[in-house]
Amino acid sequence: MPKSSGGGAPGNWPDINGVGMSIVAFRLNECGAVAPHVHSDATEFQTVVMGEGVIGTYGVGDNTLRLEHVKMGDIFFFSRSSMHFQINVGSEAFVSVGAFDVSQPTAALVVGFVGQLGDVKKALGLDTDSSKDTDGLDGVFPQFKMSNC
């Protein structure tokens, strides 16, 4: 991981020297995911530079799970304190780059959240009961098939 070049703690997040922001980049291989997590002190924005994926966010205060298909060129953001995640649904790497609005954001995994998703868990292909049909995202993202993983 790149070392911090500005005022942040070395080795945590690469911050942009003196402007109170830090950069982030993700590369998810086929079927890869960024686990559900929260930044209690930062808003995060990203641009997809390769591939396609599904981003999910669980809104602050409205208890609504939102899923959105993103592809190369799309820009998205996660509000401060919102639970969010990313999943590669394509056949190539899903790469995004972006920034936080603080130099050293906190990050906390949301343990156990996937188990509370119900039908969304099945739609994302995360249901472990093999007797259930988990291919595709209820027809919305038919290219995402657990049999490909």
Mean of all residue-level pLDDT scores:
74
Strand order of the largest sheet: 1-2-9-4-7
Task: Choose one word for the global shape.
Answer: globular
Through-space gap between termini: 27 Å
Subcellular location: Secreted
Protein name: Cupin type-1 domain-containing protein
GO molecular function: manganese ion binding
Keywords: Manganese, Metal-binding, Secreted
Features:
Jelly Rolls, globular, single chain, five-stranded antiparallel β-sheet, 3% helix, mainly beta
Topology:
Elements: E1 15-16, E2 21-28, E3 33-38, E4 44-50, E5 52-58, E6 65-71, E7 75-78, E8 83-88, E9 94-100, E10 108-109, H1 119-123
Antiparallel strand pairs: 1-2, 2-9, 3-8, 3-10, 4-7, 4-9, 5-6, 5-8
Domain Cupin type-1: 5-132
Protein name: Cupin type-1 domain-containing protein
GO molecular function, one term: manganese ion binding
